[in-house]
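Re: the 180-residue chain
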Amino acid sequence: MRSYVIIMTLAVSLFFFNGCRNETEVEIGDEAHTLFPDQELWDARIVFTDNERITTILQAEYIAIFEETGMTIADTAFQLDTFDKQGNHTSVITADSGVVLGEDSLLAYGNVVVVSDSGVVINTERMYWDRANNSIRADTFVVLTTQTDTLYGDSLISDETLENWQVFNPRGKTIRVLSK
């Protein structure tokens, strides 16, 4: 799984470095392969479902779908709404660009903002959302804001509802009174 994520990240990086071209060149061994999207969508809204239950809704100005690799690329600003297993809305993820891998994971890049329905907000430059493991991970500088706290950290791990989170190398401020 880890090697798959690394390969997909490299493929996505190559896509973004190619500028405005709608093709991706991927080197595998000594061969170079050019990937063209199977579908292109403008001002798109894609609803992902599981047994007739909405799991996510992706909205973007431009989306390229690559059937062979299972990637859906939004190389413009996008919004992803997430829903729990009961079909309740849990959070909104926005970013400058991103890659949906299947229906269960997302790599988001540039001005990533995650807002949970409970009011917790995460700001970072790069984030990985994994529905299968119910997790959100950021490996870059993060700002996590709640009603009472603002934390800054070097990385973050959270559940997708942002109820249980861990900020690494935390620093910040709170308005709570701490008891001795």
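Residues 2-17 form the longest helix (16 residues).
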